[in-house]
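REQUEST FORM: STRUCTURE PREDICTION
Request ID: SP-0412
Submitted by: Lab K.M.
Chain count: 1
Length (residues): 393
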Amino acid sequence: MASYHLSAQPVKRSEGRSVVAMAAYRAGVLLKDERRGTEVDYRRRRGVVHAEILAPDEAAGWLLDRESLWNAVERMEVRKDAQLAREINMALPHELTDAQRLELVRSFVREHFVSLGMVADFAIHAPVVEKGDDPRNHHVHVLLTMRQAGGGGLRRVKTREWNSEAMLAAWRKAWAEKQNRALGRAGHRAQVDHRSLAAQRAVALDRGRRDLAAALLREPEIHIGPKASKASVVRPPVSKVRRVGPRRKTGVSLVPVRRERQYPSSDRGSRIEWIMRRLRSNALRFEKVVAKAERQMARFRQRQVYYASLAREADRVEPTGLEARQAQSARRAHARKRLLEIAYWLTELDLLFFALLHIRESQLVRRTVWSNRLIRALEHGAMRARRRPWMPG
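STATUS: Completed
RESULT:
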């Protein structure tokens, strides 16, 4: 089943990031980072299927060179807290072929980013199964300039309209529609939806799709990137009481102090631990709905036996007298009507039951997968620690 994901975030220099290094990593190439005076080499990186730069027709030719483009962006941004670029991450349908995924990405990037004047550097990644990646995890990283491109290069002033929430919402909706059209042309019935789980469930209930509505009862999960995965293993985060925000005077002290934040009281553990708890919670929620469906099916089967016996009795005995025959005919019609209704609801509950069983099992399986990943990572970290040579204090 195809899954939907589109997220956008700025690339911030204040977080210690280099857009040149990011472009090299995503494209799996060697680039020279002029601002840092280093070379970034990711040519041995696996999983990069295709990397390409798209720019408006009237844009300068040098913008199509990855090293020239992103070094120019680094030079233009002089502030230490500058936003260097915008990154868009999108999941790709695993049902499509590599060529179909490439055409889908090219078409969407041209239509919604390049047409506005952005330069788009995108890289399509395929899962590396040998590293434990999910074989369905095809995705694309798109690095976008925050300035419009023209014949002279990039404009000096950033285009602030591209930062609006309305534009992001339009991109999310358009990406879902684009994927669904591509899946339909390729002959696949799978569809994606950009809306929240609650919104999708409300629509399913309006359409009478009880099985689909029940499948959408789960709580949303969170994304776990490489930084969070590494932090959970190499250096698990420890919550502390910290001073945050600007210094202000309070009624207690005339000396300006920063606000105290009690992080230990709100700590929920690492992102991996959090998602494992969420998957377990979703599985338990579906288990309760499955038990409720089983009880409803048992009640309907009891009623089915009762009305079937009434129908058989009405067919077996033929009473005398007009009123008695009319009463028996009414009982027979009532019993058969109820049997038809019960047969319909039993079919619906069967569909709901098996759908819920499948979803519950998938949640438990995914929780086991995350648990195994965490165990392997911890074992790998412990092995590396044992191999590390002893250094005298």
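NOTES: The first strand starts at residue 6 and ends at 12.
Reviewed by: T.R.
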